[in-house]
Write a structure and sequence with these properties.
alpha+beta; globular
């Protein structure tokens, strides 16, 4: 399991890069029911993707992906830093705004959830 905060796309696992590509292409919306195992996104089966559309405005084309390496935005680095520390869990909802992760709800099983609860109690 990789740990730590990645700083560029060179630091990403293949599954993390695929997820980042999906986030950038989505633009606005959410990714649902994304499993995390041993700190890595599980993309088979592919999670549910829901795109938000706003009518009456000029649509921007999705960012898409580029084959080149680039420095990660803070939000992306924080997402992967967090998920790399998750042994087993499921992101119920990952909200995407402007092609970047914005917020997420994550389910942590039993023991991990109790540890999180104990830190804040």
């Amino acid at each position: 399991m990789m740990r730590g905060k990645p700083t560029s796309t060179k630091d990403l696992l293949a599954s993390e890069r695929a997820l980042l590509d999906a986030i950038r292409t989505l633009g606005f919306g959410q990714i649902e029911f994304l499993r995390i195992r041993a700190g890595e996104p599980v993309l088979n089966p592919w999670p549910t993707v829901v795109r938000d559309l706003k009518f009456g405005v000029d649509r921007q084309e999705p960012r898409g992906t580029s084959g080149s390496d680039f420095e990660l935005k803070r939000e992306v680095a924080e997402l992967f830093e967090y998920t790399r520390d998750v042994e087993d869990g499921e992101i119920r909802v990952l909200v995407v705004r402007h092609g970047l992760p914005f917020t997420m709800e994550i389910e942590l099983p039993g023991r991990a959830a109790r540890q999180v609860g104990g830190e804040h109690a």
